[in-house]
Design a protein that fits this description.
The protein is 16% helix and 33% strand. The chain is of the alpha+beta class and 230 residues long. It has one domain.
Length: 230
């Protein structure tokens, strides 16, 4: 963290930096929020032989998560319309407004089964059990239903979101287009007191902010059916 400044009248007192050395001039804007990534057959890490389809990793380090127990802290929705890769790729627009006319139109299935052109995301700020740093767990497309299940379980607990923890795992799905992996979620009991304290601090720091993290179009090559969410 940067140095804290305590102001008394016209005097500013700098509190010595007590964290790891080399980060004294840190600006929070320089930090990327890491994201939990579910590797698919066409994910770059799998193509490079650094992982296998179905692995759950830290999207920045590509390392396996130290635990599969997550503690959700807050949830944010986002909608992104991707430019097709055949047209250069990238993002055409993104918004958090579900009532945006573009979102209302672009999240609908076409009359002849054309999939929506705008992808809906449920982004959870989570804490890994025993950790002190936040990470984002994002649900979209064929994972969107699992995100709804997590939110529903947390809501039904009728308490602060971070007071309950959940087990994150994966399962395979297939259709006539191929096989892919999706997240699976299940209840894992009450959060440990030490994790509750950390989660409370993260909630106060991040709950009202838009979660900024690197996002990319899904590497899943199979197409979901009309009963799947986008």
């Amino acid at each position: 963290m940067t140095k804290d400044i305590i102001k008394k009248g016209t005097t500013a007192v700098a509190v010595p930096f007590n964290g790891p050395k080399g980060f004294e001039k840190e600006d929070p804007k320089d930090l990327l929020m890491p994201r939990i990534e579910l590797l698919q057959a066409m994910s770059p890490a799998v193509q490079d032989g650094k992982g296998k389809a179905g692995d759950i990793v830290n999207q920045i380090s590509k390392s396996p998560l130290p635990t599969n127990i997550i503690i959700p802290i807050a949830m944010h929705r986002k909608y992104i319309r991707w430019i097709p890769r055949s047209e250069g790729g990238g993002i055409e627009y993104q918004t958090t407004d579900a009532n945006d006319p573009r979102v209302i139109t672009d999240t609908k299935w076409g009359a002849h089964g054309e999939k929506p052109t705008c992808t809906a995301y449920l982004n959870f700020l989570v804490l890994l059990e025993g950790s002190t740093l936040p990470i984002v767990l994002s649900f979209s497309m064929t994972n969107y239903q699992t995100g709804r299940e997590l939110y529903t379980m947390a809501k039904m607990a009728n308490c602060d979101m971070w007071l309950k923890k959940y087990k994150l795992s994966t399962k395979s799905k297939k259709n006539n287009m191929g096989t892919w992996f999706v997240f699976d979620i299940s209840e894992a009991g009450d959060t440990k007191p030490e994790d509750v304290a950390v989660a409370q601090q993260l909630y106060e720091a991040f709950a009202t902010r838009d979660l900024q993290f690197e996002v990319e179009e899904s590497a899943t090559t199979v197409q979901a059916g009309k009963n799947e969410d986008f």
